[in-house]
Amino acid sequence: MGFRLGTRKLTNNANSAISTTRFMKFSSYSNTQRGASSGLFPLLTSLLLLTIHFLTGALDWPEVGNIRAQRDFNSAIGMSALTGYFWFALRLMQQNVASTLISLLVRANRLSHFTYHREQLTAQFKHQIFNATILSIMITVVYCVLEGLISVKQELHVLMLTATAVPFWFIAILFLFQMSSNIKYLNKKVLPCVEGNSDKLNSLSSILTLGTTNSIFAVGALAIFPIFWLKKDIPSIDVLVVSFFTGVVLVFLFLPVFRLRRALEREQQDLLGALENDINEGIKLCAQKDGGGMGKRLEQLETEKERLSSKRFSAFSPRDKARIAACITLIPLSWVLLLVTEWIIQLSYY
Asked: Are 201 and 263 in contact (CB under 8 A)?
């Protein structure tokens, strides 16, 4: 019985991942859809998942002291909300990548290469879809084994929670894959094509803004996590999962942002050094009376030097700082909201 149940679960999980991949048409790296249109399908997905959990009984209000029912209730809400959030963030991220790619190619005078780069990013994206599908199934199976959900007969709502865990892990892992890979692609494959002092710095600044936006998306997800622990203790496995996700955000997202900031500073200093050398050479030629129109050229070089010296790049713009502060503030606020909700629920029992 246990083996047959486990086989049925794995089959359901695989089918769920495949159907989710087909349903989630990501419109890869298109900058034509903005705003509400990007959030429509993710919102409908969250509502659909919540409807499924409601119909199967996972959203039935748990009795006092029924830890298992409370965990199922929290998981149904939390996974449904995060699945829609990660998908929405992924769509916006890909649109931002497309916009950044276009701006870099315009500066490099290679806008005709957009289709090529988009195809390369899409091929990379499809490969990540495959990897995310495999990992999502593996994580779900490991979780089922650790929680003893394979060896015993389960209720319908538990089976559905297990099945919908696959698209949740799938979209979360794909979200992390995309955040780390897109910045690397633009840095290695597109940025070297950009020439010119200002264009190089502005291109680096555009990639820096993209990395900052990605980090903000990830920080925002942390504000949703407390719903998993409504009216229950935090198990060690959940602590590990949240700690891992937080570590990924800090190491693989914010760290590249500060690296880009340092790259901007180095590039600016290198360009200023090259301009200074050109100016000194021009002055020597003028002193030797071999300048022949070098005066106008020196004036242009001095103007360019002043303009580059006046540029100040920050890892986070004032707007980005405000957005990051708002996202970080949401995290303790979400915990406060959780405590207030538990207090109100506790009062209703008296």
From this structure: no
